Structures are given as C-alpha cells and as structure tokens.
Amino acid sequence: xxxxxxxxxxxxxxxxxxxxxxxxxxxxxxxxxxxxxxxxxxxxxxxxxxxxxxxxxxxxxxxxxxxxxxxxxxxxxxxxxxxxxxxxxxxxxxxxxxxxxxxxxxxxxx
Length: 110
What we know:
57% of the residues lie in helices and 20% in strands. It contains three helices and four strands; from the N terminus they run αβαββαβ. Strands 1-3 form a two-stranded antiparallel ribbon.
C-alpha cells in the first residue's frame, strides 16, 4: 500500500465513520421519544441530516441526493417528531420519483 492509496482509504474510512455516526445519532433520537417531552429549539439542518442518514440505504438505489440546508436555523419542536416528518416527506418524494433522478432537499429562511 503506497502513501496515495493509504490517504484515499483513510478518507473513505472517515466518510464511512461520519455516516455511521449520523445513523447512530438518528436512531438515538427516535429511541428517546417521550410523549411528555416539551418542545425545544432544534437545529433544522442537523434534524434533516439525521433523517437523511436513516434513509441513506434507501436513497442510493438510483437517486442522486443533494442537500442544501442553511446552517444556524432553530425551530421550536420535538426532535423525534421532526425526524418523523422529514422521513415521511423524503420517502413520499422518493416514491413519487419512483426512486430515479435527483432529489434536492433544501431548507432556509423564507
């Protein structure tokens, strides 16, 4: 293994670890669901990234996915409920696209 190959493999490993970390975080968010939990500020971009991480395996079947999320936007809500909303919206979009083409997920201030 030469230095260039080692660098490429290291980058690929870092990307895989980041993805795995996102999936674990998203699963934890679902698992912590508490019906009595109060609404609180939730980072919108992070919430979308978590939902997309859970759906990554589903989306890679022929769909190019692009996300443009404005950073720093906080919304008042429950993290687990927002993740469910994003998941439903993304799955509905994928179904409508018949899992082909490009899906753009964009968030920002109106």
